[in-house]
Amino acid sequence: MKLSRLSVSDFRNFETAELEFSEGLNVIYGKNAQGKTNLLEAVWLFTAAKSFRAVGDSEMIRFEKDAATVKTEFFAFGRENSGEIIISPGKRKLIKIGGVPLEKTSELLGQFPCVLFSPDELHIVTGAPEVRRRFIDSAISAFRPAYYGALRAYLRVWKQKNALLKTGPEKEALSVWNVQLANEGARLMQYRKAFFEALSPICAEMHREIAGKNEELEVLYVPSCPLSPSLEEQKTLLYEALEKKREAEIYQGLSLIGPHRDEMKFTVSGKDARAFASQGQMKTCALSLKLAQGVLLEEKTGEEPLILLDDVFGELDGDRSQFLLSHLAGKQVILTCTEKEGPVERAGKRFFEVKDGSICIST
Ligand SMILES: Nc1ncnc2c1ncn2[C@@H]1O[C@H](COP(=O)(O)OP(=O)(O)O)[C@@H](O)[C@H]1O
Ligand SMILES: [Mg+2]
């Protein structure tokens, strides 16, 4: 995957801007609140038509304007391609790939392999379970677009079951929903199980390289019921777990079992990272996870993903920064930082200075 060009108009604080990227390391630098992260956000839109900031779409439209447009030119899966996304308030986003409008947003999944690392990514380790589930869902959808459909199907059933639970249902009525929930949920669990089996050894390897051999990172899938290698048995196991909690669910009016309650866990040398790791160790876990996600995405799609790094060097110490730069050597990276200096200046191929919503220098 190579991104050659990005252009935006009325996107965030940019009236118009156009950037031509080189292979290797592209550096976007400038003072705070000038628009650096906004440019990464524009690129990231082509992964799933969503911002990485948890916001409504219309916040991306430049203040007092009617629509934001973002365009890209890129090479992926053996051909030159182009993308266009138009965001207008109260309307569905218009998304075109190769000039052709997509009928469903989900058709975009997998077309633009890309991995993001920002200081916020630490929340995958330290934050609420929802953050980790969002990571799992977006990471799997990026190379298994069918996962997204399975997730939607599950959430539909889950919502209907929740509505029923609010009414204080009869046991039999609930069991009918549990059968459906178990069928849809078991599919998700199979995807997630396979994802963690592939991801975990790569995470451990990245972590060994960054932290040294005497710390072992494990990234574990913690589902809400026992796992099985077979889909049919998984349906049964999930159904049994749901039925066991039936009384409690009716009593609490809440759906207590299923993939919407799944978790992931990080352990360093066998100890739960959330409880025992230092801030530095948690950053290393998050960085290992993100680099592993990139490696896995490449394994699964055959495309080297574009790497977006938002303000990470202020966060990482010298050794980790050095490892990161050497790991990324040869890959296409877009990085934001405040100063054009040090290892970033030495390794950078192209530089863009951003000032108040304009690219004022590009070299
Ligand atoms: N919809 C919008 N219209 C105009 N300006 C915006 C909009 N959304 C954010 N901004 C401005 O963008 C700037 C922040 O940009 P950002 O990319 O986060 O900065 P940084 O260079 O620090 O990464 C702020 O000045 C903010 O007011
Ligand atoms: Mg920023």
Provide the spatial order of strands within the biggest beta sheet: 2-1-4-5-6-7
Terminal Cα span = 22 Å
The total beta strand count reads: 15
Q: Strand pairing plus helix content: what structural class?
A: alpha/beta
SSE ordering: EEEHEEEEEHHHHEHHEEHHEHEHEE
Radius of gyration: 22 Å
Helix-residue proportion: 40-55%
Question: Any idea what the shape is?
Answer: globular
- CATH topology group of the domain at 1-113 and 303-363: Rossmann fold
The stretches of 5 or more residues where confidence is low (pLDDT under 50) are none
* The CATH fourth-level homologous superfamily of the domain at 1-113 and 303-363: P-loop containing nucleotide triphosphate hydrolases
Using the coordinates above, name the CATH class of the domain at 1-113 and 303-363: Alpha Beta
Ligand types: adenosine-5'-diphosphate, magnesium ion
Which strand-content bin applies to the residues? 15-25%
The total count of helices amounts to 11
CATH A-level architecture of the domain at 1-113 and 303-363? 3-Layer(aba) Sandwich
In short:
With 363 residues, the chain is an alpha/beta fold. It has 11 helices and 15 strands. Bound molecules: adenosine-5'-diphosphate and magnesium ion.
Report on this structure.
The chain has eleven helices and 15 strands. It has a domain at 1-113 and 303-363: 3-Layer(aba) Sandwich (Rossmann fold). The chain is globular, with a radius of gyration of 22 Å. 44% of the residues lie in helices and 23% in strands. Helix 3 packs antiparallel against helix 4 (145-166) and helix 5 (171-211) packs across helix 9. Strand 1 (2-11) and strand 2 form a beta hairpin. It has 363 residues and is α/β, with parallel strands linked by helices. The strands form three sheets. It has a six-stranded antiparallel sheet with strand order 2-1-4-5-6-7, covered by helices on one side. The chain has a six-stranded mixed sheet with strand order 8-12-13-3-14-15, with helices on both faces. The protein has helices at 36-48, 123-126, 129-141, 145-166, 171-211, 231-244, 246-252, 273-276, 279-301, 318-328, 342-347, and strands spanning 2-11, 14-20, 25-29, 68-76, 79-87, 94-97, 100-101, 114-117, 217-222, 263-268, 271-272, 306-310, 333-337, 350-355, 358-362. The structure holds adenosine-5'-diphosphate and magnesium ion (MG). Magnesium ion (MG) is lined by residues 36-37, 310-311, 336.
